[in-house]
Fold this protein.
Amino acid sequence: MISGSTESGYFLDGVRFFCEMQMHGIAPDEFVYSAVTQSCIHMNYGELGRMVHAQIVVSGFSSHVVVSTSLLNMYAKIGNIKDSCKVFNTMIEHNQVSWNAMISGLTTNGLHLASFDLLGNMSKQGLSPNLYTLISVSKAVGKLGDLSKAKEVHNHACELGIESKVSMGTALIDMYSKCGALSDARLIFDQNFTNCGVNTPWNAMISGYSQYGFSKKAFKLYNKMHENDIKSDLYTYCSIFNAIADLKNLKHLKEVHGMVLKGGCDLAVLSVNNAIADAYSKCGSLEDVRNIFDRMEERDIVSWTTLLTAYSQCNEGEQALEVFYQMREEGFLPNEFTFSNVLVSCASLCLLEHGRQVHGLSFKSHLDTQKCVESALVDMYSKCGSIYEAEKVFNKILNPDVVSWTAIILGYALHGLVSNALNHFTNMEKMGIKPNAVTFLCILFACSHGGMVEEGLHYFQLMEIKYGLVPELEHYACVVDLLGRVGRLDDALEFIAHLPIEPNEIIWQTLLAACRVHGNVELGEVAANKIHSIKPEYSAPYVLLSNTYMAKGSLKDGLNVRTVMKDRGVKKEPGFSWISVRGRVHKFYSGDKKHPQMEDIYMKLKELREKIKAMGYKPDFRYVSQHVD
């Protein structure tokens, strides 16, 4: 009855029967004790387990290998690994099952090195490991990430001739993948499982590729798996959606999502839903993220954070804040990733008071010292105009990483404190922190806005020579801006001509903006034509070139550019500004007639205009389009 109740999941009944049999004078045997320890495990009832243990000692069954193995297994599974080890070390006799139980317990409780060492002790005692031993140890070695130990486990599997068994092979693939040895993992897969109809080895290999950024290989293997008619499951889908998110390939995403929909998986499994939403977010498809979220039957903090992050990354900061407040109203507690992303939205909207409130919430949640939150706080305070508070947060960070250093360097650059930015870069190097590509973008930005051309060119060269970082288009655009701001337009053009990659519209737009500032119409025309050839629907070159003509007094040419722009159907996205009043964000567009307080706003604008005119203000009409016959 006790064993039957336990095996059927009626654990409390099993314990009740255990008590009743003793009340009737029936003494438990080793099988009863083994069964009741299983009930203690599933009920996670440590106190009851200790009472059973005491009775086992009193009744003289502690020397029985089966009972002792059940006890050490019980303690390990309820998280009391210390008592599990005590039981194991006091056992008179060990068999393969007890060794396996102890090794598995150590692995489950995170004592990975001890688990591996116990494999060696087992061999010294003259007992050979079996399939279950090596699967447990392989998990431990995967967590350790130790390739030499992984090779030892693999050798044991080969000696036993079990490398080709699906469970062992899958464990080996997973272990090698987590040790970063993907070629070794793939070798095991190719030698044993290319014709395997079971999906677990395929899942392990796809997961390994996905986790280490080999997303194209992951997707290629997934396609092969699909061609072989091997059924995907939620583990397959979670891995492949992560790979597609990394590739940012919306076409592949919709194809695989369609397969999931046919299987009815995404409506039932939360982890798959979250993976799909995250993939759509990283592919920039905000509408699809929202649709996935709204269809979810169940949501967790990952679901909410994914939606919030999607809005934040798509520069929809206001909606991100709304999601954050709605999430909290529904009782979900933000995690560190939620806080870091909502802080990004506060920064993008320059909402200092909102940012301070979020900072306070993160402090109350004891998450303000998480690295991603600390960096986001520095960034938020900098972009919201409070460099003092940004410094205060940064100075409290223990062992700041490259992201934190980059955030404060950018903050100083944004506030025109160029020497502070460069000094912090030097301090970061002294601390042994290697700058990344974003750090150099911030340094180039600082030099550009500080007019420090030679210093900027020095850092640009340092990037590749000292740190082996290959410049990207954004870095090249920064150098063009660096040269263009001080009027070295010919040098900027020559720099573009010698780029190792094809310049994009942003690089040419940077040059065009410099031409407008310095009144170089001829070179401005060259830059504008280059942009037209790359991105004909882009409005910026028309506006910049028109303003360049007008600044030089060529009103007719400036208006002609605007006419061409209109004839070609190119529309400029209207600019807008915003303020936050009593927790609500108000947006204002040029000529806005839709705001509910429109009349009061225009009345106040008229009053302000009259006041500044009385103070001697004269508006600059150089860039204002006029209707002429």
User: Anything to note?
Assistant: The beta strands are 576-581, 584-589. The longest strand covers residues 576-581.
